[in-house]
Specification:
Oligomer: homodimer
Number of helices of chain A: 8
Strand content of chain A: 15-25%
Largest sheet of chain A: 7 strands, antiparallel
Number of strands of chain A: 12
Largest interface: A-B, 26 and 26 residues
Number of domains of chain A: 1
Chain lengths: 313, 313
């Protein structure tokens, strides 16, 4: 596998550092038609995330919730590599590659409205880089520590540029009691280069609790001092779009309410994976798609040039 | 040590159960003079807690914050029994008996306004049953799981009745990002009898992570379904009064902001400790005062009968 120039080095130096983002945030022209209006694209550009309530109908949500319930039951104790358990309780914490293994989630990632929104953000056709359900069970759900997804995808999967977007699709309410996602708005414009070499087969441990690719305290404090924290309350029907490099994490969940979310990560077809930038070998296909199948965004939308810079806002 | 009739059995049966509270919540007559007005006493009666903003002056807060900082520095690595460290990071999580060991906190528990409010709630003079600072450091502060303080004080310390109140005195903001205290309003009217025998010297482990005296999932779900959860945002200058039996806990803290609170637990002089109700031997003095020193509530307030029932609201 060829390796492009490394614009976002990480896990190489012995000191953390903060690197400026050189990639656009919103890739399409602001007049590109789609479900997101100009103000929403502007929000995403500035904050690195966008909460859109009432994106999906009640029927769609009910179908997804049924599938979620089924998936959880089917995967409890399955022992499959795609399934990650809570460190202490052994309950199902995450299931990966649900778009591949469960037809309902396969359909979800081809939802035309979702794809058109993704097209507006990425400015190109896209494919699923990763899909997963995070369950975060009630009572004993553990935290997800602060991280930039892109740091891991770059280091361990070889994603060259910041041109991917995550869609968090809530299956339960996410609120201040059950460990809602916290984001640092604006943090997507800075890349925290982390210290520590990637261990072999790091993913087997990192999916339970990450130890490499963890941003240092000083950089996190710098980001929060500069930008603060937001934790949008969300729930079924909504979509939270967030940039691949926005710093995010969540606290534990001792409430009785599970906090279950489906994640679909769309990557631009112009940003396919290379050799990992800071790991010996790439992670398995269920964590990072190396055989992309473009999803075919709405053909009625104009196609901007692949290398187009972000529109000025 | 004599042992009264056990009105709140716990850690005895092999099935959890929910027992009705037989004790009053607010013990004094509602016309008792003091800093809390009728509406506030009513709130406390119904919810089991009361948030009072701007209780302390800025000068008092600054003095307390200085003392807090000093205490943390003095106790880091001190190895004293009074100091509890975070399970993973080894940072100072709690320091007990600060009213005894640090003059500033000794003065705090004799603050006349605080004592008059406590008198209004407990209907008698009081003494410090326990004092502590909980630091919950930023980035790596772990959760405090759901518990009723009274359950432990009854089982392990021999506190006979529900006639004690905790004053949470925030030294930093407590908000949705740094693991603010969550309470179940109304839960103080029910006693969750827990399963599992108290191990010898249980406190040495339980202060880091409690395993005995932990309410079961079904009872917690029942309480939350009935009453919901509240997590009052609070900060320096405020006091959060909460009943000894209100169910409470808090999530972890991955934010950069420490969540530091001073706790002063006042127990009625008519409710002094007996032999533990569900443990072989009592916990040490720094966790549970067996040599009470009444604090002398304001003599201008009328003294109601010791056994007075709660006023009807």
């Amino acid at each position: 596998m060829q390796k492009q120039q490394d614009l976002y080095p990480t896990r190489i130096d012995d000191q953390p550092r903060i690197v400026d983002r050189v990639d656009p945030v919103v890739y399409s022209d602001p007049v590109t038609r789609g479900p997101l209006d100009y103000a929403q694209l502007d929000d995403f550009e500035h904050k690195g995330f966008l909460h859109v309530p009432e994106f999906f109908s009640g029927d769609t949500v009910a179908t997804l919730q049924d599938a979620l319930h089924h998936t959880r039951q089917a995967e409890a104790g399955s022992g499959r590599a795609e399934v990650v358990e809570e460190p202490d309780s052994g309950e199902v914490r995450s299931v990966f590659a649900v778009h591949r293994d469960y037809p309902v989630f396969g359909e979800l990632c081809r939802d035309q409205r979702l794809l058109r929104a993704v097209f507006q953000l990425l400015g190109s056709d896209a494919y699923i880089h990763q899909s997963r359900i995070n369950f975060k069970p009630g009572f004993r759900g553990k935290e997800f520590y602060w991280h930039s997804d892109f740091e891991t995808w770059h280091a361990e999967d070889g994603m060259p540029r910041m041109r991917a977007v995550s869609c968090l699709i809530p299956m339960t309410p996410n609120n201040q009691y059950n460990g809602a996602l916290m984001l640092i708005p604006g943090s997507h414009r800075h890349y925290i280069s982390c210290v520590g070499e990637t261990p072999q087969n790091h993913y087997k441990q990192s999916l339970k609790q990450q130890r490499t690719g963890v941003p240092d305290d000083d950089s996190l404090r710098w980001l929060v001092d500069k930008y603060g924290i937001e934790a949008p309350a969300t729930g079924p029907g909504s979509v939270l779009f967030f940039d691949c490099n926005v710093m995010h994490g969540s606290n534990s969940n001792i409430s009785p309410f599970p906090r279950s979310n489906v994640f679909m990560v769309f990557n631009s077809v112009y940003n396919t994976l290379q050799a990992p930038f800071s790991a010996d070998s790439p992670r398995p296909e269920f964590l990072a798609t190396r055989q992309p199948r473009p999803l075919g965004a709405d053909k009625t939308a104009p196609t901007p040039a692949a290398s187009r810079r972000s529109h000025a806002i």
